[in-house]
Design brief:
Structural class of chain A: mainly alpha
Number of domains of chain A: 2
Low-confidence stretches of chain A: none
Strand order of the largest sheet of chain A: 1-2
Order of helices and strands of chain A: HHHHEEHHHHHHHHHHH
Number of strands of chain A: 2
Helix content of chain B: 55-70%
Shape of chain B: elongated
Order of helices and strands of chain B: HHHHHHHHHHHHH
Number of strands of chain B: 0
CATH class of the largest domain in chain A: Mainly Alpha
Largest sheet of chain A: 2 strands, antiparallel
Helix content of chain A: over 70%
Oligomer: heterodimer
Number of helices of chain B: 13
Chain lengths: 316, 324
C-alpha cells in the first residue's frame, strides 16, 4: 500500500510537470511576455527590452520554464502585474471562499444523490423513477449558468427570498459561511448540476447491487426492507461515489468559475475570469496548473480511498 | 464491444455491404456474452439490428426529431424568415414580442427569433466540426497507440493523461482569449482538448479486439493485417466511436455556450447562443425575459436531443444492453 502510494505520487509529480509544461508552452505561444499588459501597447522597444531583461523574460523559454517550475515547488506562482500582488497571496485570499462554495455543493449533492439514486433503483420503472431520470437528463444538458439564471428569476426576482448576486460585503470565508442567505443560490445551483451526474451513477450502481446474491440472502434471512437497504445496499452501492467524487474535481473547478461569474462571488473563478480580460497571464497559468494538480490529486485520493473502503480492490 | 454477429467461420458469414460483420447461423456463442439459450437471431447485419433497436426507442426518435427540427430551423429558417442581423437599429431596441417581431428585439435592435436561428447555425457548426475533428484525431492516435503497443504506446498515453488532467474549460478559455473569432478557430480550440477521450476509447477497443478469437481465426485462415484492421477492428471499434461523437457534439455546444457567456465567444457580427446569454442576468432583472428563455430553451433542447441520441445509440449498439 505504502509502496503503491509512493509510486503513484511519483507519477503524479511527473504528470504535474507535464501539465505545467503544456500550459506554460501554450501561454507563451499566446504572449511571450506580459510586458505589453504592463507597459501598454505603445511601449517603446527599448523600454520593452529593459523590462523583459529586468523580469527575466529575455531568457530562453526552457530556462524560464525551469525557473517557473522551481517556483511552483516552493509555492511561488509568479506575480500579477495587473493586481500588483503575488499570485500566491491572491490565491490564499480567494481559495477559502471557492473551497467553501465547492465543498458545500459537493456535500449537499452527495446527501441528495445517494438516497435519490437508491430510491430510483428500488422503485425502478415507476412514474417517480422516470420523472427523476428525465429531470436529471434535462439538468445534465443544461449549462450551469442558465440553471442559475432560472433560479435567480424565481427565488430572487419573483419571490424575493434571496439576493440575485452575492453582496460585495462578503469579503472573507468566514463571512461567506455566516451569511447562508447570500450563498444559498450559488451553492444550490452548483449542487443541482452535480446531482444530475451523480444520481445517474448511483441509480445504476444500486440497480447492479440489488440483483446480487447478498441482497437476496439478506432478504431470505428475513431482514426488514429498511435493514436490507440501509444496512447492506447503501454501503456497497455508494462505493462508486468515492471514485466519482475524486473525478468531479475538474467539474467543480469549472462550475465554480461560471457560478462565481454569474453571482459575482469573489473567489478563484472570478479572479481567473478577471485575468482573462486583463491578460494577466501569471494568474491564468497558475490557476490552470492548480486545476490540473487538483485533478491529479483527486484521482489519486479516490483510488486510495476506494481501496480502503472496499477490501476487494487491491492496489498493486 | 461484444458482437454476437461476429463471424466465427469466416466462409459461412453472410457479407452485407457496408457492414462490418455478418452472422453465422448455428454456431453457439463462444464466450459468455452471446445470446443466451441459443437464441440466435435471424440473418441480419449488426448495423441493421442496431438501427431497428434505435427506432424502437421512442426517446431516441424524439431526440432525432428535435435535432432535425433545429437543423432546419437554423439553416432553412433564415431563408424563410428574413431578418436584418448585420445593422443595428436603435429605434427598436428591447421591444417585447409582437409588432412583427415574434420574439421581440434585443439591445441592438436585432430581431430575436432571427438571432436565435443565427446562433443555432454556429452552435451546430461548431458542435459537429469540433466533434468530427476530435474524433478523427482521437481515433488515429488511439489506433496507432493500440496497434504499435510497447513503449511508444506508453509514452503516447501518458501524454493523453497529462492533457486530460488540465481542466478543459480553463485551457480552452485561455486559448479563446486569442483564437475564438471564427467558427473554424473555435472548433479547432475545442477539438484540441476533446480528442483525448476518443483516443483512450479507441486504444482500449483496439487492445481488447486484437487478441480476440475472431481475429486469431481470421489470421489462422490467412487473413492479413489489412483485412483484420478493415474487416474486424474498425467495424467493431466504430460503434464506440459513433456513440462518443454524439457526446462530443453535446459537450462542444455546451462549451461554446460557456465561452460566449463569459464574453470570449465568436466575433461580431457572428453570434452564438452563449453570446446572447452573456447579459442574461441583467436582462432578467430588467424584465426582458424574451432575450433569455427562448434562447436558453433552444440551447437546452439541442444538447438534450444530442444526449438522448447518444444514449440511445449506445443502447442500440451495445449488444449487452440490448433488450431481447
Amino acid at each position: 500500500m505504502t509502496g503503491y502510494i509512493i509510486r503513484r505520487l511519483i507519477v503524479a509529480i511527473i504528470v504535474t510537470i507535464g501539465i505545467a509544461a503544456v500550459t506554460f508552452a501554450l501561454l507563451h505561444l499566446l504572449a511571450p511576455s506580459p510586458v505589453y499588459a504592463v507597459l501598454g501597447n505603445k511601449a517603446r522597444p527599448v523600454a520593452v527590452a529593459a523590462w523583459n531583461k529586468q523580469h527575466g523574460y529575455d531568457r530562453p523559454e526552457i530556462v524560464q520554464f525551469f525557473s517557473y517550475l522551481w517556483g511552483i515547488a516552493r509555492l511561488h506562482f509568479g506575480y500579477s502585474y495587473k493586481l500588483s500582488q503575488s499570485v500566491s497571496a491572491l490565491f490564499k485570499e480567494n481559495f477559502g471562499r471557492s473551497a467553501y462554495l465547492s465543498g458545500a455543493a459537493l456535500v449537499l449533492s452527495i446527501l441528495i444523490a445517494v438516497p435519490v439514486g437508491i430510491a430510483q433503483a428500488v422503485k425502478r420503472n415507476t412514474i417517480g423513477d422516470y420523472t427523476v431520470t428525465t429531470l436529471n437528463f434535462v439538468l445534465y444538458s443544461m449549462p450551469s449558468f442558465f440553471l442559475g439564471i432560472i433560479l435567480i428569476q424565481f427565488f430572487a426576482l419573483d419571490l424575493k427570498i434571496f439576493p440575485p448576486g452575492v453582496s460585495d460585503g462578503i469579503t472573507t470565508t468566514w463571512e461567506a459561511i455566516t451569511h447562508p442567505n447570500q450563498l444559498l443560490l450559488p451553492i444550490v445551483t452548483l449542487t443541482f448540476i452535480n446531482v444530475a451526474s451523480f444520481s445517474r451513477y448511483m441509480r445504476s450502481s444500486a440497480l447492479d447491487n440489488l440483483g446480487q446474491d447478498y441482497i437476496r440472502l439478506a432478504r431470505a434471512k428475513g431482514l426488514s426492507e429498511r435493514a436490507v437497504l440501509f444496512g447492506h445496499l447503501l454501503r456497497n452501492a455508494a462505493l462508486p461515489m468515492i471514485t466519482l467524487i475524486g473525478l468531479s474535481i475538474p467539474a467543480l473547478v469549472q462550475g465554480n468559475l461560471l457560478i462565481e461569474v454569474l453571482f459575482n462571488y469573489q473567489g478563484l473563478g472570478l479572479l481567473f475570469y478577471g485575468a482573462l480580460g486583463n491578460e494577466d497571464y501569471n494568474i491564468l497559468l497558475a490557476y490552470t496548473i492548480l486545476g490540473g494538480i487538483l485533478t491529479v490529486l483527486g484521482n489519486l485520493i479516490a483510488d486510495v480511498a476506494i481501496s480502503v473502503a472496499d477490501p476487494r480492490v487491491r492496489l498493486k | 464491444m461484444t458482437d454476437p454477429t461476429r463471424p466465427i467461420v469466416e466462409g459461412e458469414a453472410v457479407p452485407v455491404a457496408g457492414a462490418g460483420a455478418g452472422v453465422t447461423i448455428g454456431v453457439p456463442p463462444q464466450d459468455g456474452h452471446g445470446p443466451e439459450g441459443g437464441g440466435v437471431q435471424s440473418v441480419q447485419s449488426g448495423w441493421r439490428l442496431a438501427l431497428r433497436e434505435y427506432f424502437d426507442n421512442r426517446l431516441a426518435v424524439l431526440g432525432l426529431a428535435v435535432l432535425i427540427f433545429f437543423i432546419l430551423f437554423s439553416f432553412v429558417g433564415p431563408i424563410v424568415y428574413k431578418t436584418n442581423q448585420t445593422l443595428t437599429n436603435p429605434l427598436v431596441t428591447t421591444m417585447p414580442p409582437g409588432h412583427g417581431h415574434p420574439l421581440g428585439t434585443d439591445a441592438n435592435g436585432f430581431d430575436e427569433l432571427g438571432r436565435i436561428m443565427k446562433g443555432g447555425q454556429t452552435a451546430l457548426e461548431v458542435g459537429f466540426l469540433a466533434a468530427l475533428m476530435a474524433t478523427i484525431i482521437g481515433t488515429l492516435y488511439g489506433a496507432i497507440a493500440g496497434l504499435v503497443g510497447g513503449i511508444i504506446d506508453g509514452i503516447m498515453m501518458r501524454f493523453v493523461d497529462v492533457l486530460l488532467s488540465i481542466p478543459y474549460l480553463l485551457i480552452v478559455l485561455v486559448l479563446a482569449t486569442k483564437y475564438s473569432a471564427t467558427v473554424i478557430e473555435m472548433s479547432v480550440i475545442l477539438a484540441a482538448f476533446s480528442w483525448l477521450v476518443p483516443a483512450r476509447l479507441v486504444r482500449g477497443e483496439v487492445l481488447s479486439l486484437r487478441v480476440r478469437d475472431f481475429v486469431y481465426a481470421c489470421r489462422t485462415m490467412g487473413g492479413g493485417n489489412g483485412r483484420i484492421v478493415y474487416r474486424h477492428l474498425i467495424p467493431n471499434a466504430l460503434s464506440v466511436v459513433i456513440v462518443n461523437i454524439t457526446f462530443l457534439i453535446a459537450d462542444s455546444i455546451l462549451a461554446l455556450s460557456y465561452l460566449g457567456f463569459l464574453g470570449l465567444g465568436l466575433q461580431y457580427p457572428a453570434t452564438s447562443w452563449g453570446d446572447m446569454l452573456g447579459n442574461a442576468e441583467q436582462n432578467v432583472s430588467s424584465g426582458y425575459w424574451w432575450l433569455v428563455y427562448p434562447v436558453g430553451a433552444a440551447l437546452v433542447l439541442v444538447v438534450l436531443a444530442v444526449n438522448l441520441i447518444g444514449d440511445a445509440l449506445r443502447d442500440a449498439l451495445d449488444v449487452r444492453l440490448r433488450r431481447r
